[in-house]
Give the backbone structure.
Amino acid sequence: MWNFTKTTMLMAALMGLCMGVAYLLGGTQWMLPALAIGGVFNFIAFFFSDKLALASMRAKEITRADDPKLYGIVERLAERGELPMPRVYVSAMAAPNAFATGRNPRKGVVCVTAGLRQMLNDDELAGVIAHELGHIKHRDILISTVAAIVAAAITYLAHIAMFTGGGHRGRNSEGANPLVLLLMMILAPLAALVIQMAISRSREYSADEYGAKLCGKPRALAGALDKLQQVSRRVPMPVSPAQSHLFIVHPLSAEGASTLFMTHPPIQKRIERLMTMERELSQLGQFRP
């Protein structure tokens, strides 16, 4: 619940920042067009993001006959989570990772790489699948798409303000101060990026919590994250940085990056939270068979 409330607040802050930049650019008359432009791009990205992600991974859909164990794990956990059965894809990439996509739970897709499929045991694989089902359950694909598009709109508006002189003009106004415009061009996109990354990290924590409860074995998900962290550092995945938020662990090398600009929380913090859940569930006797 806390992560959901935090995400709502961050989304509101991001939209408020977008409207503020639009107001500084041209007054109230710019605010509605800015919202409309962002909505159009959001609509396009939302409806094609799943196809783009799967194409970039060269992923192929599988059936039960192709991989009975993987398909069965997805089916069992989807049923337990009261979700429609998502389509299951496998990418031939050696880098171990997984992601979920789809416009809504009925269009859900879970994709794992061949590297992940080979590296994890059954319990760890179930933990990863449960995490991805958490993203589908909570419509995180929609949330992340909206956040990305609004952040991009803010950057676009800030650059327009800089290169057109910006600032709404009245009869006795000469426009905005150039220094103010320069600061807005630099700080508005930076603030938007920080908020966008905070939203992404919040959704990862929520998916970890949901996945651990769904599979009933937080330790297994923690173990999977630990293995993925160790290997992903050596074998980064060649994907677009714009798609990095989709994956269960960051597919690109993020060492040395500020936490503020990371799409994922530090793996060690995620593991620590999961191990705390392990102890709590053990005490309450809430493990699933």
Remarks:
- Residues 2-284 form one domain.
